[in-house]
Each structure stands twice: as C-alpha cells, then as structure tokens.
Write a structure and sequence with these properties.
Helices cover 11% and strands 47% of the residues. It is mostly beta strands. The chain has one domain.
C-alpha cells in the first residue's frame, strides 16, 4: 500500500512540474499598447445617458437609453516562476443601447487591442459587424455608399455592412448601415423587418 501511495505522490508532483515548467522570460515580453488616438475615439457617435430613437418597419417607435463606459487597465498573467505583464494599457470604450420593449439590444465596442485599425465592433442581438475607425488599411474592403436614402432622409458616406445569407435564419439581423455623423442609420432583418433611426 505504501508503495502505491509513493507512486501516486511522485506522479502528482511530475504532473505539477509539467504544468508549471520554467518559462522562457525572453519570449514572454509585455505588449505595450498605444492609447486610442483622438482621431479614432472622436468618431464614436453615441454619448452617455442619452435617448436615441428608432422606428420599426411596422411603425412602432422605440426609445433606446445609452450607457457609455471607458476602462483603462493593465492585465498581468502569472506564468509559474515568470510573472510577466501580458498587456499594458488596455483600453475599452463600451456603449450599450438598451430598451424596455421587445427590440434588439445594441452594443458598440472600441478597443486598442488591434492596432492600427481600431475596429468598432457593433453587436445587434447575436450578430456582429466590424468597422475599422482608423485611416490605416484594414486588409479588407468595407462597402460604402455616397448617398443612402431611407425614411425620406438622405445620408452621405454610409458604410453598408452585411452578413452572408447562407444558412441564415429569418429572425437574424443581416445588414447594418452606419456613418460617423449619425451612428446606426438602419438595421435590417433577414425576414424583411428593419429599424431606422429618427431625429
């Protein structure tokens, strides 16, 4: 019995050493992120504690309340005997648009983790769209419209963001129109329903 206990003890020690082997600190350098530039953050349209109005295709008026938060933090990951800051100066602008009626809640997230493109991630229910806010080449092309007319109003320089229609459910969001001057202009649903911003 004592031999079995000894073997088990040694096995546990070896597993622990394997899981916590010495780190190569030279290959585990901290990532020092730059602040989100003013030219990028200034493109964020939504302000804190403000009501924004949309109209559903049925004619129903929906009021959204905004909440904008900014966080600036450092993360440290303990790696055995080599505790090294993994990320320095991580910044997030998080905007939530919520409503008390049955309509999609909306989130907008800007961070400095993917420099130099600084993508704005827009979530509508479980569908996410991505729009780089930097003038740097993002490596992919964002469709845009010189003019976009909706609900009798003309908007200029509008980004037309869409999702693949393959295997798409009818209740899913499939398109979003956005510009820096007015934020979200229109949200389209695969079943033909839509939401349009109101002044």
């Amino acid at each position: 019995m004592s031999r079995v206990i000894y073997v088990l003890t040694v096995s546990v020690m070896l597993i622990g050493l394997a899981a916590c082997s010495p780190c190569d600190c030279g290959n585990n350098q901290p990532v020092n992120l730059e602040d989100i530039p003013e030219e990028v953050s200034s493109k964020l349209y939504y302000k804190n504690d403000t009501v924004y109005v949309f109209k559903h295709s049925s004619g129903t008026i929906i009021e959204y309340q905004s909440e904008v938060q900014f966080t600036d933090s450092d993360e440290v990951e303990e790696r055995c005997d080599c505790p090294t800051p993994e990320i320095n100066n991580e910044q997030h602008y998080t905007t939530k648009l919520t409503t008390e009626v049955f309509a999609p809640n909306i989130t907008l997230e800007l961070n400095n983790l993917r420099q130099p493109y600084y993508p704005l991630t827009i979530g509508v229910w479980e569908t996410y769209f991505e729009l780089p806010l930097s003038s740097e080449d993002a490596g992919f092309e964002i469709p845009s419209l010189d003019e976009f007319v909706v609900d009798g109003q003309t908007y200029y320089n509008v980004f037309a963001l869409g999702k693949s229609k393959a295997n798409q459910r009818l209740d899913e969001i499939d398109s979003l129109y956005y510009n820096h001057e007015f934020g979200i202009i229109k949200i389209g649903n695969a079943n033909g329903e839509f939401y349009v911003r109101q002044d």
